[in-house]
């Protein structure tokens, strides 16, 4: 990872399509170039495909993830159209293609049902356990309010919280660290084409589900919505493959779908189903998977409708079972885990003048972007600190327990010192009203915010009558919850950041609404602070996660009123623009910190020279190349004949490491270079069976005799890999990569000779910063 | 267009991605191939890029559009990254890129506002005029019911209708024939990359708007919603270019956006805004433009949010002005031209059992697919008939008038002979209740369906009390309206098919609901036929237009209730599957009949050999090639040096006809092949000023001396056109074309020598039929 011979800086800007940068490469370094041919080319032709001359040792860089070392690979979204593949396609009848299509629909239905059921399970268990916990604490508080000694209640609360969180943190830290957090960064990467180990395994799902329950019941400032997206994705990956490698069960169905191209489509449908179950937003789900994995949606009509189907099924399933659980079967009014409640667009409260006022006060909601950026910056520093010092699992568990105890203590203190007593109206909808030191028939308003699951607090802030909170309560709550949520995100527990963001935003939004109303008491239109809470929630969430289109649709679907669409959208856009000025979105920060080669919507660079194989290659050479850990390449161009000189040879095809490993495992060797295999021994099935966990090269034993044999790669290689001429501009390469979801792109000269290979990793090393194209600073431990 | 030396049939099936076909080429013909080299290649390598050996005369095929001959070109969505372009990009500062981005937002806002205003204008004028017309007729009927002589009323009705329709038909047939119909097929083509002449001109917009008003007021079985999409697109194309070639005004703004890539993005936002204004469905609008123009959405996050913004603005504008017009400013309850009214998901009417019943009765709604297919087949035959015999404008006007008169007569007859009298309740919402022969305090139910604008009829069918219609009325109405609508679509008037489809479906859906309720009178849940009307409307519309994702979202947004999402989606899917078995969607039929080279989501084939230019080429050669009407190519590969032998030469770049014309016009000549131009005379601005109406080659005069000069194409050509090797499979080529929105793809051999050129037209010539890949039958006059 060291001796990079040249650093390259591009002065980049948006190209005409508004997508990627276009610019001039400036060679900063001055030492003699290693491969003078390429460099002279580069120097002569500005703004071209640049070969940054990375030494070969750099190719298989180890990426340092939070608390562990991960080798991140790319997924293959380009079909390998080799002879095997073509022959199979030709053998299949029209009928079997139709059956495949039906299977896809069935799988999407199953994904929807299972995702809905998981959401339902989480919701019911959390509600039961949290209810129990709050009941116990409430009784204790009631008991000790009179006699004194409320510290016992505090300790009870803190201990209960810490215990739940401890369980949640232990299973995450010791069993499956990838299940930490919301999982949205990981799913973003997966949809973008980065293979993250273990991210879609059954074990991850189990840990995720129980982890979420523990963290939410443990009273942390977290939500259970984000993890649903990850859960949906895991369900999709599992169901679509028709087998579980964790359980060692192969149902022998859906074998056709065992490859990256198909699996990714299903995972995207699963993520959509997850969003749909979390927020009751099927269209938002589809747009989410579109926005995050949009790069290869060149088959939109074919797949989006399936995603939509899965989303619909998932929200209906959740709704159906929840309605049965609540004893009102058929009441389809809770389509998601979080329900914003119905916002009516009554004329009185939302007239034209109000509209203009909203526009005028938008600048106030730029605050969302600022607060979001602050949140992200604080969390960034915290995460760096965690990567450096809190990387041992037991330390992580202890930190999580500490946060849980502190959360309980702070909440208790705030409630204890608050004197915001509100009358307990007849139609009060507080689940656990705490009287504490209030008069009879009154309750403590601070407790509705703190002594509650975050989902309920959000709903109270949106819908409680004007006057339910006094400004001081809201101010203090915003302040403390902001820091608690910021500290919590990134802990080794599985939990999401959506709900805490909404809660912070709703609190200060409502505060603004109250202040505004107090300045202009004459206008009754401004009396409802709930709407300000909604806009504030959108601003804060937008400022933290920086999604726009899908988030707007999700919020509109969750509020159930399209009238709020325009203000929500404007707020989200403003928050994004303001926030982006300071810091990236929280998911992008975490992706960067985990050093995953994620392709942004911005510009990149690439590398050379490459190791090529002959069409008929010596087994020994292949084994040596694959075993060489320093050249941990994943794709190898196949060329007509590598001459002994350094002259590049003509491109014939491309073969993958995984294919070579299967070939070596099945010993598809010929003894002489000239003799061809009369009978092919391998079928596509052999490749599918090995998918996706191909054995490492070390597990394959090749005898000394076999090393002298030859392998004929012709019928296994992809004979028509995508290529670009060497003077292609960077944005053009980037566009091709994103549009087709490529993993490798062969660079050829004007005689079709291989002179380089562009991989996703090469592209992701650079990003478009404020001063043109910059090299990414990898996080150092 | 004749001597095609070989016809090729592919036995195609969906490839792995479910997208495109994969198959074996079977050479049917047996005569000696003209270009034996390519053919032998093809014969040896099955399933490869096939060169169907079309003679060169075939390249510029004339496409026969309805009643006129049109030359359909492709749009260029691939940026020409030549030296001019790169230099301009380099000169531009970061600030100017930001300004461009802001301009894009401003333009999208303007598009939304203008589209909303147009929708508002159409709505108000139609309401006024139709109100006037129905008032006059109603008074006449009232007068003559008593005294006899109702035939005078009939004649009055027929004459009024015919007059309005005549005006509408005359402006369409004589002034701008492209404004006929809904414009959705044309916009689909445009978004897909086919340049249809005059489709986004100001004149077209004017004709469209007034044409729609005339046809709706003229009482035809049409809607005003479809044309809104076309109108939005025209507005977008106009605003984004900052000039009007029709009005000969150039505002000297937005000059950067004067090219196909940018313009198409704006047009797609405009189409979204149009959908949004028509149905009050901003998300549906975005999905519509995504579904129809999905091929090149590799920049989804960047553009979709802008489309969404335009959509939001358009629906808010419409709502705002309509609310002012209706005297209730701020009442944001009519977000679109058509408003389905609020469907409540009350528990009583939509319980679990009801859900299951819906699922069970879905098969009944396959009828939607069948009826839709029937509609399409009938309309297909009718259109063929029209293309053959009714292609003179005056005939078209007469046909339109005939239809208008017949519609009035049929309506009148139905009302006259109907004896379905309903009591006029206190909360009746009929606009023009006709008493006719009914008792006092009653009205004629048939008249609510016929004596009304179609939008109001749809709403009555959805929301009127159970028992408002008797089954016979509905049955007769369905039957007559079906044939009327079928006859009407394709007339030379500008009008849409959405509302008639909804109306037919709502009528038979309500009929089904009534019959069902009468069989099971015990169950009060089935008493509301309005819900069946909604499902029926969805089924019929889906069966006719065959959209799925976007249509579901549009319907859900129009009903304002996400609970109906799943049944609507299932109905639309069923209708599509059933309908596709018989016939394509109505828009695809009309696209096919107009023989536009539209790229479907299915597989294609391509052609060779090509005419190449040298980097430094003789002016005479270029002029001759461009002038040769039989080789009406639009893109020419530039090669290193064309040898005199038939050997192909190495590819250097690609240059377009339009570029060459600009070069010729500015006489960028050098006298000797060896001398290079010291000073370049042309700027990108010169190309932009000529865009999009490049002068024909005939208008450029080149003297005999100049013919001997040379032109240096190096700095104007695109130096890195996308290429594929000759053995690339068809689906792969197709994927590349769709994903990147290409117009030309150069086919090279393994030494990078040009051996063919794939154009959109070549790909569109073939389509995937029931028996594999079939050659498209072009419509013959």
UniProtKB/TrEMBL annotation, chains A, B:
Predominant place of localization: membrane
Domain CBS residue range list: 717-775
GO terms, molecular function: chloride channel activity; chloride:proton antiporter activity
SMART domains cross-referenced by the UniProt entry: CBS
UniProt KW keywords: CBS domain, Chloride, Ion transport, Membrane, Repeat, Transmembrane, Transmembrane helix, Transport
Tagged with keyword Disulfide bond: no
A Pfam family the protein falls into: Voltage_CLC
Family matches, as InterPro entries: CBS_dom, CBS_dom_sf, CIC-7, Cl-channel/antiporter, Cl-channel_core, ClC
Residue ranges, compositional bias (Polar residues): 1-12
CDD domains: CBS_pair_voltage-gated_CLC_euk_bac, ClC_6_like
Residue ranges, annotated region (Disordered): 1-32
Membrane topology: Multi-pass membrane protein
Cellular component terms per the entry's GO annotation: lysosomal membrane
Protein name in UniProt: Chloride channel protein
């Amino acid at each position: 990872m060291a001796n990079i011979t040249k650093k390259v800086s591009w002065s980049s800007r948006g190209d005409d399509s508004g997508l990627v940068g276009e610019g001039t490469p400036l060679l900063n370094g001055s030492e003699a170039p290693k491969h003078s041919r390429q460099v002279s080319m580069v120097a002569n032709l500005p703004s071209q495909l640049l070969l940054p001359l990375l030494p070969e040792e750099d190719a298989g860089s180890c990426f340092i993830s939070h608390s562990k070392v991960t080798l991140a690979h790319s997924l293959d979204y380009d079909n390998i159209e080799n002879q095997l593949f073509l022959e199979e396609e030709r053998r299949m009848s029209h009928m079997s293609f139709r059956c495949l299509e039906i299977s896809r629909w069935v799988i999407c239905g199953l994904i929807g049902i299972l995702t809905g059921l998981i959401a339902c399970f989480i919701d019911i268990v959390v509600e039961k356990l949290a209810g129990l916990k709050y009941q116990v604490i409430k009784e204790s508080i009631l008991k000790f309010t009179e006699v004194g000694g409320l510290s016992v209640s505090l300790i009870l609360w803190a201990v209960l919280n810490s215990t739940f969180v401890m369980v949640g943190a232990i299973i995450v830290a010791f069993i499956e660290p990838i299940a930490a957090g919301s999982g949205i960064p990981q799913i973003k990467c997966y949809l973008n084409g980065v293979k993250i180990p273990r991210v879609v395994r059954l074990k991850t799902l189990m840990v995720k589900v129980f982890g979420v329950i523990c963290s939410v019941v443990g009273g942390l400032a977290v939500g259970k919505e984000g993890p649903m997206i990850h859960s949906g994705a895991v369900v999709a990956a599992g169901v679509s493959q028709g087998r579980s490698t964790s359980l060692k069960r192969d149902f022998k169905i859906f074998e056709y779908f065992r490859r990256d191209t198909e699996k990714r489509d299903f995972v995207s449908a699963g993520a959509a189903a997850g969003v749909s179950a979390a927020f009751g937003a099927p269209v938002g789900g589809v747009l989410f998977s579109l926005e995050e994995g949009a790069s290869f949606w060149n088959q939109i009509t074919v797949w989006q409708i399936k995603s939509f189907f899965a989303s619909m099924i998932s929200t209906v399933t959740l709704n159906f079972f929840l309605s049965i659980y609540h004893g009102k079967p058929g009441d389809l009014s809770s389509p998601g885990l979080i329900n914003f409640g119905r916002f009516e667009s009554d004329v009185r409260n939302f007239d034209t003048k109000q509209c203009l006022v909203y526009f005028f006060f938008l600048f106030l909601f730029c605050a969302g972007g600022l607060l979001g950026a602050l949140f992200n910056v604080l969390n960034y520093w915290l995460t760096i600190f965690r990567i450096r010092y809190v990387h041992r699992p037991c330390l992580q568990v202890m930190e999580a327990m500490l946060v849980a105890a502190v959360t309980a203590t702070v909440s208790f203190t705030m409630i204890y010192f608050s004197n915001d007593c509100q009358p307990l109206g007849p139609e009060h909808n507080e689940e656990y009203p705490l009287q504490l030191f209030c008069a009879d028939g009154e309750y403590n308003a601070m407790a509705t915010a703190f002594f509650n699951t975050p989902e309920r607090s959000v709903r109270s802030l949106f819908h409680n009558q004007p006057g339910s909170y006094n400004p001081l309560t809201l101010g203090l709550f915003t302040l403390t919850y902001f820091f608690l949520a910021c500290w919590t995100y990134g802990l080794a527990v599985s939990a999401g950041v959506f709900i805490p963001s909404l809660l912070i935003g709703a609190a200060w939004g409502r505060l603004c609404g109250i202040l505004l109303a107090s300045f202009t008491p004459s206008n009754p239109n401004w009396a409802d602070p709930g709407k300000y809470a909604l806009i504030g929630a959108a601003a804060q969430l937008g400022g933290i996660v920086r999604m726009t289109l899908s988030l707007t649709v999700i919020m509109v679907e969750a509020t159930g009123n399209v009238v709020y669409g325009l203000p929500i959208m404007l707020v989200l856009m403003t928050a994004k623009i303001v926030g982006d000025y300071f810091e990236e979105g929280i998911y992008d920060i975490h992706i960067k910190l985990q050093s995953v080669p994620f392709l942004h919507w911005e510009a990149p660079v690439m590398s050379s020279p490459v190791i090529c194989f002959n069409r008929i290659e010596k087994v020994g050479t292949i084994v040596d190349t694959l075993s060489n850990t320093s050249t941990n390449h994943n794709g190898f161009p196949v060329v007509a004949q590598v001459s002994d000189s350094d002259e590049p040879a003509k491109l014939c095809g491309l073969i993958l490491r995984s294919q070579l490993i299967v070939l070596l495992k099945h010993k598809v060797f010929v003894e002489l270079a000239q003799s061809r295999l009369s009978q092919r021994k391998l079928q596509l099935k052999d490749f599918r069976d090995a998918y996706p966990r191909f054995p490492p090269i070390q597990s394959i034993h090749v005898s000394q005799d076999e090393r002298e044999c030859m392998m004929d790669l012709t019928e296994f290689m992809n004979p028509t890999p995508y290529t670009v001429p060497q003077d292609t501009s960077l944005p053009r390469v980037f566009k091709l990569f994103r549009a087709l979801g490529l993993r490798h792109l062969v660079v050829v000269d004007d005689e079709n000779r291989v002179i380089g290979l562009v991989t996703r990793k090469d592209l992701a090393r650079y990003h478009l910063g404020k001063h043109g194209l910059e090299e990414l600073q990898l996080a150092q431990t």
